[in-house]
Amino acid sequence: MACLMEIIRYHQHQSLERNRNSFGQKIDDFKKRMGLDRVLGIVGSSNFERRDEYEQTREWLMYSIDRTKRKAGEFGIVCGGTRGGIPELAIEVAKENELFSIGVCPEGGEKYLVEGGVDLAVLIPRPLYGDVTWGSETSVLAGLVVMVWW
Fold it and tell me: How far apart are alpha carbons 104 and 80 in whole angstroms?
C-alpha cells in the first residue's frame, strides 16, 4: 500500500467554529475516500526502555489488530505518527497489515513524523500554555477513535 501522506493543518487565523468545521470535514473526507468506518487508537510512549518491551508490544499489537479484524472487519489506526516507540511501531504494524494510518501531532512536530509512514498527518496547534510536546493530540485522537480494546 503506497503512503499518501496528506496533511491537514488547523489554521490559527480562522475562527474556532470555522476551523472546527473545516478541520473535521477534511478528516471525514479522508476517512470516506479510504473507506474507513472504524478507527483504532494506539497511544503510548515514544521510546522503549528495553528491547523485550519492543518485542512484547509488537506481539500485542499484532494480536490486537488480528482480533480487531476478526471482530470488526476493516479499520484504520490513529496514533501520534512520530518516530520512536509505540507511535512508530503502530505505523509499522499497520503497514504490515495493510491498514491506513492517521498520525496526529502538534504543529512543528511534522519534522518527527515517520518518513513514508502515515497516510494522513493531522497537525494541531501547540498547547496554549507551557512547552509540552506530547499528549496535545488527545482531543483529536479521542474524536477519531471508534474502537477501544483493553
Answer: 5
